[in-house]
Amino acid sequence: MSCNGNSNHEHPPLPEWNSLNYPELPPMPWFGLDIGGSLAKLVYFEPTDNTESEETEVETLKNIRKYLKNNRSYGDTGHRDVHLQMDSVLIGGRKGSLHFIRFPTSEMALFIELAKSKGMATLASTVCATGGGAYKFEKQFFKELHMRLHKFDELESLIRGIEFMEANSPTECYYLENPKSDTAEKICYDFSDPYPFMVVNIGSGVSILKVTAPGEFTRVSGTRCDCNYLADLGGGTFLGLCCLLTGCASFEEALELASQGDSTKVDKLVKDIYGGGYEKFNLDGNLVAASFGQMISTDRRAKVKREDLARATLVTITNNIASIARMCALNEKISRVVFLGNFLRSNMISQKLLSYGMEYWSKGALRALFLEHEGYFGCVGCLLELITQREDYILQENLKNNLLNGAATVNGTTPPPPTEVSGTPNPPEMRNGSS
Amino acid sequence: MSCNGNSNHEHPPLPEWNSLNYPELPPMPWFGLDIGGSLAKLVYFEPTDNTESEETEVETLKNIRKYLKNNRSYGDTGHRDVHLQMDSVLIGGRKGSLHFIRFPTSEMALFIELAKSKGMATLASTVCATGGGAYKFEKQFFKELHMRLHKFDELESLIRGIEFMEANSPTECYYLENPKSDTAEKICYDFSDPYPFMVVNIGSGVSILKVTAPGEFTRVSGTRCDCNYLADLGGGTFLGLCCLLTGCASFEEALELASQGDSTKVDKLVKDIYGGGYEKFNLDGNLVAASFGQMISTDRRAKVKREDLARATLVTITNNIASIARMCALNEKISRVVFLGNFLRSNMISQKLLSYGMEYWSKGALRALFLEHEGYFGCVGCLLELITQREDYILQENLKNNLLNGAATVNGTTPPPPTEVSGTPNPPEMRNGSS
Question: Which Pfam family is an annotated match for this chain, by its short name (chains A, B) (predicted)?
Answer without folding.
Answer: Fumble
